[in-house]
């Protein structure tokens, strides 16, 4: 904006408190110009000619709207110095007086407002605005401080009484904020950083009461770009941080639950048998299961008998992209050795005496594009371990009696309750097969190491058998305590059997600890019925006991499944035993 001072030499009695400007953008700029220069009139010119007038009267009416654009609607005439004129006659608000060179040298009117009234109105307005601004600042920040370039506190906001620092802030005016940092009132100092870096800084401070404070330091520079002030706005964010953390935790929890529900849903839909778990160990295992399901790598599941290895293997299949394809389980321990090869690989017609007319597909071929579950892999005879390894490695098989190879695309999951590494050392398991299948080992912990699961499993089996037997039985509190305290050597299979037996033998709706004692005691007795009266080789003692047990169980029950159940071993184990005894000694 170009400002020209009024000419002083004139013969007429007219006002000289005016300025000629090219333009002013808003009311505030016009006001500032007039107040700072003590003017009552701004003459706006374009191309050297006056085009509008802004007077103190016009501005006085607009002090409440400082950012508004000025509309110069005041009427004026231009008259030459010495010319005889009368404003009222011409009915104009202003007359601008020009000299012989057409330069404006003064003005006159009948109604102009004194500049002092304008100043007064303006300062009142500014006071109101300051109050508003303070209110705004107070509601956004808990505390606003202004310090000088050395950190001396010059000003504090109104509301800052004794909040963030625990003192009345009015009492710290004049102190150096850096000293207060040294005293440990808060840490770190945003002022120090702004002084060092000369730019706006936001940091999170901790005050001496352990609160978290967001402090924003804004540097103010003078025209020479020197730092003159720092405005520090602070807000207590302890609560927000806590809420944010809680929200974050809730989100993580939600995500975890979503995954668990996902797993459960898929697993449940798959085989109708739900995997029940609550313990951290099982949660971690199930996350692992979900992860490995997505890759093709061979998994070997380790764990004691009855811990749920097969259930886990099935879940991996259900969660994998092969879910729609077959899941074929081979009990490496239950198929007689001489049949295992034909079971695994199949045979062509007429391959051997007794072979089916059209030949037979092996389990490998049946599992094509799906998953092959090699249960009890530790029971696989050494000679078949070689053939299995070849099939896995070469991804093709040849049927017995066949001449051409058949490509197979299967995912292998193995399971065992044996320590395969020890078997490798003992020479009963091939090292090369071990490394081929031990790519991703999963360990299912025994039930005694995840006691948190017991109650959930008990309720699950109760519900299952109540449904099956159309009963409404439940365990008393002391029975539940007993189940929780028991060590479950037979793991979940045993827990399931005990629950079933308790429900069958108890006539009352409530199953008590006494009822359970009978079942668990029975188990103890039946586990120790062997009395040894002379020293005999251990192997013979074991074989004899196995033989007697099997005889007894087979005389009472018709199926190997039932025999396995009452002897509390897996079905593969009992089949293997049966075959061994049948071949060697004739059961
Ligand atoms: N987490 C579980 N939730 C519900 N049922 C389970 C769970 N784990 C195991 N079971 C049940 O316990 C029984 C034994 O499980 P599974 O056959 O999978 O164990 P395993 O480790 O493969 O045993 P084995 O080594 O003797 O073959 C099954 O009836 C199975 O459904």
From TrEMBL:
Query: Which PROSITE patterns does this one have?
Result: PAC (PS50113), PAS (PS50112), SIGMA54_INTERACT_2 (PS00676), SIGMA54_INTERACT_3 (PS00688), SIGMA54_INTERACT_4 (PS50045)
Question: Taking every annotated instance into account, which residue ranges of this chain make up the domain PAS?
Answer: 129-178
Q: SUPFAM superfamilies, alphabetically?
A: Homeodomain-like, P-loop containing nucleoside triphosphate hydrolases, PYP-like sensor domain (PAS domain)
The residues forming a coiled coil are 240-267
Locate the transmembrane regions by residue number. none
Cite the Sigma-54 factor interaction domain residue spans from the record: 275-504
The alphabetized UniProt keywords are: ATP-binding, Coiled coil, DNA-binding, Nucleotide-binding, Transcription, Transcription regulation
Q: Which residues form the signal peptide?
A: none
Q: Which residues form the PAC domain?
A: 197-249
What is the name attached to this protein's record?
A: PAS domain S-box-containing protein
Source species taxonomy: Bacteria, Bacillati, Bacillota, Bacilli, Bacillales
